[in-house]
Amino acid sequence: xxxxxxxxxxxxxxxxxxxxxxxxxxxxxxxxxxxxxxxxxxxxxxxxxxxxxxxxxxxxxxxxxxxxxxxxxxxxxxxxxxxxxxxxxxxxxxxxxxxxxxxxxxxxxxxxxxxxxxxxxxxxxxxxxxxxxxxxxxxxxxxxxxxxxxxxxxxxxxxxxxxxxxxxxxxxxxxxxxxxxxxxxxxxxxxxxxxxxxxxxxxxxxxxxxxxxxxxxxxxxxxxxxxxxxxxxxxxxxxxxxxxxxxxxxxxxxxxxxxxxxxxxxxxxxxxxxxxxxxxxxxxxxxxxxxxxxxxxxxxxxxxxxxxxxxxxxxxxxxxxxxxxxxxxxxxxxxxxxxxxxxxxxxxxxxxxxxxxxxxxxxxxxxxxxxxxxxxxxxxxxxxxxxxxxxxxxxxxxxxxxxxxxxxxxxxxxxxxxxxxxxxxxxxxxxxxxxxxxxxxxxxxxxxxxxxxxxxxxxxxxxxxxxxxxxxxxxxxxxxxxxxxxxxxxxxxxxxxxxxxxxxxxxxxxxxxxxxxxxxxxxxxxxxxxxx
Length: 532
Prior knowledge:
The chain is of the alpha/beta class. It contains 19 helices and 22 strands. The strands form 7 sheets. The protein has a 7-stranded mixed sheet, sandwiched between helices. Strands 3-2-1-6-13 form a 5-stranded mixed sheet. The protein has a two-stranded antiparallel ribbon with strand order 4-5.
C-alpha cells in the first residue's frame, strides 16, 4: 500500500473525512474528502427536471433515489479501494440548486410539486415585490414563488406551515432541523448584511401584504433559520441515516454543517469569497458571483444581491441557460459517429469540437445562436427556444459553429457583467468551474474574452460544488478562524491553477459576437411567440 493511500485509509478509520453532496440540475454528486481536502471517493446520479402541469420539477422519489444511488456508489468505491465499510465521517453537508419553492403543511406533506429555479412563472410577483421592497427580487426566488401563489389564489396557500429550498428540505429530513446557510437563504428572501439575517423591514412590508390577502402568517415562522458557515446545524438522525444508506452501515450522530446553495459552494470551491474576487459557475445554468466592496447605486433586475456563506454581499449575475444546447449538439455528433460504426468517447468528441473552436474566424462567420431552453431574465426573454441562425453568405464551418455556441453560452452573463462594469465594481479576476472547463484552455479562453478579465481554473474545477460542500463540512469541525483564512491557508495553500488573460484579438472577436447577440434577441422572442 502506498503512503498516500495508507494516510487516506487512516483518515477513514479515524473519522477525519468529510462528505459533501450536491443536487445539481443534471447530476447529484457525492464527494468524500480526506483531512488534506483531497477527494478520495465519489459517486453520482444523473437526473433531469420534468415539465409537469406547466412547472419544471423533480419528484421527491427521484430526490431520495438519487441521494441513495450517489452515496452507494461512493461507499462502494471506499470499500473497493480501502477495504473499509464506511460507517462514520467527520461531518456532512448538503447543497443544491438555489431558489425555487417547496411548501409543506404542518404534517410535513409537500403541498405542490417542487417548483425549481428554472420556472419563469412568477414575473408578476417578482415585479411587484421588486417595486415594493426597492430590492431586486428575481423570478427564481422563493418569496416570488410564494407571492405568485398568493396572487393566483392557489388552494394550498392557507395550509402552508414551512417554506424551504431543495437543500433545506433534504437537510431537514436527515436532521430534523429547519435551517439554511445564509447564502442559500439569501436566495429565498433579502438578507440584512448588518444582522446576517432576513431583512426585518422587508419582512414587515411583506406581512402587510399577507394581511391584505386575509393570511395570518408570520413570515419568519415559515422560513428556515439562518446560519453562517461553521455553525452547527444538527446531527444525522436514525431515520436520516436510513434515507441515505438503507444497508444500515452509515451510523447516526454525524454532525452537519448548514445546507447551502450551489452558488455558495461554487464560491468555496474556487476560493472566491473575498472582496474583488469572483467566480463563474457553468452548467445547465451559469452564474457569476462577484463579492462586492460596496452596494450598487440602484436596483438592477439583472443583478441579484445575495451573500457568501459568511454573509458578505455578492452581486450575482444569473443566467438560466448555459451548456444545455452545447450538450444537445454534442449528443447529435455522438449519434453521427455511432451511425458510422465508429466508437468515440463523449469526452473525446467534446475535446475535438472544443479545440476546433479556437480556429474560428474573428467574426465567427457571422453566425448566431441562443441556447435558451428556458426563459432568460437578463435579456428579457420569457420562454426558451434553442435557436441557431445564419445568413446565406455566412461562413458556416465547424470552427465557427462551435465557437458561436460556446460564446452564446456566456452571452447572458456578459450582458449582466456590463452592468457591474458601469457601476465601477472592481474585479481582480474570476475563477471558472464546471464541466465546460474540462477541455483545457478553450472554455476558459472564450469566457475570459467575454468578461474581459483574467480567468483562472483550479485543479478542483471538475469537482465543483460537491467538493466545495465537503470543504464547508470540514470547516464545521475546524472552525478556528474565519472561512477566508481557512480556505487560503489550509485548503488552497498548495493548489495548482492555470490563469488565462484575454488577448486583444479575442476581446474584439467577442465584442463583435455580443453586438450581434444583443441585436438579434427579438428573433429569439419571436420564435417563442410563434413556435408553440
